[in-house]
Design brief:
The protein has helices at about 30-45, 60-70, 95-110, 125-145, 160-165, 190-195, 225-240, 245-250, 265-280, 285-295, and strands at about 5, 10-15, 15-20, 50, 80-85, 85, 90, 115-120, 145-155, 170-175, 200, 260-265. By secondary structure, the chain is an alpha/beta fold. The chain has a single domain (about 5-310), classed as NADP-dependent oxidoreductase domain (TIM Barrel), CATH 3.20.20. Strand 3, helix 1 (about 30-45) and strand 4 form a beta-alpha-beta unit. Bound molecules: nicotinamide-adenine-dinucleotide. Nicotinamide-adenine-dinucleotide binds next to strand 9, strand 10, strand 12 and helix 9.
């Protein structure tokens, strides 16, 4: 496993990170067991960064992850969770909520502290409140020793500049903006590097768009984007390769991101992904797939308040 520096935090994180959002759907004994095994397998394979949120499965993901972490030495992984988002339309970025939220997360996760606390999907809030109330509340959590580093997450790239220009964040988490069909996040790398802000890149499969089975029904992409990704997946299949393999290798090859978070539901997925990580990327296949995806390159979808959106990218 290759480890990379996460901004100026001093953390050396595995370039492949573990996204535990699929644990939100681990609602029966079998899927819970699978999820727990996946965490143990990932740590054995050298993955040391795990991301979760109280939002995933309305606290279910944190509860399942907490069970998985119970018998693992605390120093063998870095843990990230979030505050502020609790349902599809349930947000509370207030100081009072954030203070209660972290304590509840620590209890569910069976840990005394998290390494990273993120304000989850800030585009749904007022950026004024995020800057003047939520981020200072995160710093107080840090001062209390409950989190080591703080940051924000969200979809529209516009939010990152807006918030980091007025605050002093350790890191950011961006998703669906550095994958085969969308590389808009690359445009912000010089800015983040200059500010020494660590970059966590999430969703190399663009939340399922770049997989054999395709996106879930709730996926917010346009029909045009879904159709184009399905055509690229078909092309890869005809070449005897899963588009997911190319997608993962492509995102991991960008060394400016400390880690790329992949959503993992079971140990088979983590084993497959670590295996793909060690195989070389096929440059010819990449060129073909990029030309199929060219018509929808960097096309995104709106998320959160209209004023926080800029689907055109940076
Ligand atoms: P993703 O692009 O990583 O896709 C995950 C999906 O791919 C899951 O359904 C998973 O079961 C499947 N998968 C995993 N390995 C596979 C393989 N080898 N072949 C085929 N399918 C495979 O999207 P994601 O899960 O949304 O993102 C990754 C993580 O990043 C999340 O779990 C979460 O921790 C984080 N994230 C955070 C935010 C935020 O803070 N706003 C948003 C998105 C993601």
């Amino acid at each position: 496993m290759e480890y990379r520096a996460l901004g100026k935090t001093g953390l050396q994180v595995s370039k492949l990170g573990f996204g535990a959002s699929p644990f939100g759907s681990a609602v029966d004994e079998h899927s819970e067991r699978e999820a727990i095994q996946a965490v143990h397998m990932a740590i054995d394979l050298g993955v040391n960064f795990i991301d979760v949120s109280p939002y995933y499965g309305v606290t279910r993901a944190e509860t399942v992850l907490g069970k998985a972490l119970q018998n693992i030495p605390r120093e063998s992984y870095y843990l990230s969770t979030k505050v502020g988002r609790y349902g599809a339309a349930a947000f509370d970025f207030s100081e009072q909520c954030v203070a209660v939220s972290i304590d509840e997360s620590l209890k569910r996760l069976h840990v005394d502290y998290v390494d990273v606390i993120l304000c989850h999907d800030v585009e749904f809030g007022s950026l004024d409140q995020i800057i003047n109330e939520t981020i200072p509340a995160l710093r107080r959590i840090q001062e209390a020793g409950k989190a080591r580093f703080i940051g924000i997450s969200g979809l529209p790239l516009k939010i990152f500049r807006a918030v980091t220009e007025q605050t002093d964040l350790d890191l950011i988490l961006s998703y669906c903006h550095y994958c085969l069909n969308d590389t808009a996040l690359a445009g912000l790398v010089p800015y983040f590097n200059q500010k020494q802000i660590g970059i966590i890149n999430a969703s190399p499969f663009s939340m399922g768009l770049l997989t054999e089975s395709g996106p879930p029904v709730w996926h917010p992409a346009s029909d045009e984007l879904k159709t184009c990704c399905a055509a690229a997946a078909r092309y890869c299949r005809n070449q005897g390769v899963s588009i997911a393999q190319l997608a993962l290798q492509y995102s991991l090859a960008q060394s400016d991101f400390a880690t790329t978070l992949v959503g993992i539901a079971n140990s088979e997925q983590i084993t497959t992904n670590v295996g793909w990580m060690h195989e070389p990327l096929d440059p010819e296949l990449l060129r073909e797939v990029q030309s199929i995806l060219e018509p929808i390159r960097n096309q995104s979808w709106p998320s959160g308040k209209p004023e926080n959106n800029d689907t055109a990218g940076v």
